[in-house]
Predict the 3D structure of the following.
Amino acid sequence: MSGDDSTQIDSAKIDSTKIDRLHEVDLFRLFDRRALDEVARITKEVRLPRGSILCEQGRVADACWIIVEGEAEVEVGDHELVAVVGPGESVGEMGLLDHLPRSATVTARTDVMAYRIDAARFDGLLGPSPLARAQFEHGRRLVT
């Protein structure tokens, strides 16, 4: 193996902690290790201060968020609190499939560390396969 090959392998390694955390999320619980590795590759770790908006009601969905540390408030309408989400919970997962306007606003209640999964990149993982999309949708339905 040449030096160039080992550099590529090192840069392609995915943090096993990230994969383990993704596997704990209901949304991805049915994914095998290979599929989780692919999701981890497109998942970005983001630190957000208290008060940051993760999703805004009415805006077109472009990502899913997984809370790793901290809490976020889910509000609908005129600031009606409907849920508080914490570590291991996802918000905006429908954005990975439908790209429709958000049905709620999600705001960091505390400082938050979260994983952000871009919907366009997730589309690229699923590809044009109706079977892959159906399997993901089925898994999502099992947890909602």
In short: DSSP finds five helices and eight strands in the chain. The chain has one domain: 16-143. The helical segments are 3-12, 16-24, 33-41, 119-126, 130-143.
